[in-house]
Amino acid sequence: MAFTAVGVKKHYPGVKALDGVDLEGYAGSVLGICGANGAGKSTFAKLLAGVETLTDGEITISGFPHPVRNAAEAERAGVLMMHQEPLIIDDFTVGENVWLYKLREGRDIRPWARKVDTNSAETREVLQGVGLGHLSTRQLARGLGPGQRQMLSLSRAAVTKHKIMILDETTASTSEEHFNDILRLVEREKNEGTSIIFVSHRLNEVFAMCDRIAVLRNGTLVKVLDAAETDPDEVTALMIGQALKALARPDPVHAAPDQVPALSVRDLHGGSANGVSFDVNPGEIVGLYGLVGSGRSSVARTITGQRPAAGGSIKLHGREVSLPNPTAAVAMGIAYLTEDRRLEGFVKDFDNGENMSLVALPTMAKAGVVDAKREKTRIRELISEYQVKGGTKTYTRNLSGGNQQKVVVAKWLETDPEFVVLDEPTKGIDVGARSNIYQIIHGVAARGKGILVVSSEAEELLSLCHRILVMRNGEIVAEFDPEHATTDDLVRTALTHEG
Question: Where is each ABC transporter domain found (predicted)?
Fold first, then answer.
């Protein structure tokens, strides 16, 4: 037995995140923790790692003299937590980030201890083990993409003593080509006797990695299953209390010969995007697929004013627009849902109501004064419409990732934009909330709005979009009709431009 959790409870103001959970972890085994948004998955992980304090109950770790009470004790007991948002120091080199925990201990300044060489052959070997062997150990970490940052964080498992490793949605920021690196890392850890907890909404990854699956719903433990004796349908039904209905792909959009595109991009340069051209018609959902570094997010950020274009043109409903900053894009009716909701999607010190009305406040004001009654009424409607857990006064930062994303989606769609860019819209979101957001996207398209969905998940785009554009090395290299394409077609094209 690696750890035992008995009667674990965690309550926040207005939210019972966990309410009496009993769970065990075994050495050399992977325990998956699944559940819908707000089920308590990440809360349990944080309690085990001592990051959060228990409201009631206790967690004991084998070999440690008393129940864990804080992060320092959990670390001494041998718990290593890998967060969904990786701890990376931008002004440190890649090598220094690998050895971050060792450097923090101060051993490099103790004369009797071996100094850490952040540019050593060992460091390069560690990076090779997580698919980052091509990086220089001496380059600054600030230029790395989300997937690379997550893999860099995971590299610390090779240089940090531990007997329990928690992976809390760590695959949410990585794309498909890195998942095999994570699988190999987990297999090495299992062989060394580590107890691994894998918190994820991606059921295909849970079944590929886990020996047992614990399903949480509304803060309680529903069931612990042997992964070899169950299937995704059963787990999904346990997560949301019912079988999930498959969402039909949207009906085809047939543009008239003289129809003006909702958005027309020509020879766009910006970031790693290099001469990108495409159109999105009114009512059309276009997917933009690519692997890490392909330029997909550069396109999203450039056409929404997050970064200035270095060249090319952007037309909205046939009229060329200048988008030097996000404010200009919003004024033109272009909404952008960021890839990183925790950093850029909402204000951490605002509650749900304040975040949801933030962008749409001008529409609720007269002579510059906000109509408070109208605002409160609309916020209550949005909470119900988007099925957000918690009330209007619940801090958005205390919600699960999926509920946070619903708040962000509601905030932007409340502005009634002409064109919507969704960058990884379901990253870190469970199957139930994912279906809910897909329905919202379909509804926006049905109202004649143009939509660009940027994603590293091929399967998502195949089920959601009318057309899919594939990017590689900053360029669009192929276009697919989802009716006649497969995941393999998209991945192969993104990797090799063979299709």
Answer: 3-243, 258-498
Angle subtended at Cα 173 by Cα 169 and Cα 177, rounded to the nearest 5 degrees:
110
Same domain, 308 and 383: yes
| Domain encompassing residue 38 | 3-240
Q: Which residues of the chain have pLDDT under 50?
A: 107-110, 112, 243-244, 497-499
Largest CA distance in the chain: 77
Burial class, 231, CB count within 10 angstroms (exposed 0-12 / middle 13-18 / buried 19+): exposed
Pick from 9, 29, 441: which is nearest to 211 by CA?
29
- Taking each helix axis from N to C end, the angle separating 232-240 and 431-446, rounded to the nearest 10 degrees, works out to 80
CA distance 281 to 283: 6
Phi, psi of 183 (to 5 degrees): -60, -45
Residue after which a domain boundary falls, among 208, 240, 272: 240
Q: Which amino acid is at 365?
A: A
Query: What are the respective helix, strand and coil percentages of the chain, to the nearest 5?
Result: 35, 25, 40
Q: Which residues of 154-180 are buried (b: 16+ CB within 10 A; e: fewer)?
A: bbbbbebebbbbbbbbbbbbbbbebbe
Instruction: For residues 482 and 361, give the distance between their C-alpha atoms in angstroms, rounded to a whole number.
Output: 38
pLDDT score, position 107: 47
Q: Could you tell me the two tokens for 257?
A: 């010969």
- pLDDT, position 498: 43
Q: How far is CA 233 from the centre of its chain?
A: 23
| Residue pair 82/165 in contact by the 8 Å Cβ criterion | yes
Q: Is 418 exposed, middle or buried (0-12, 13-18, 19+ CB in 10 A)?
A: middle
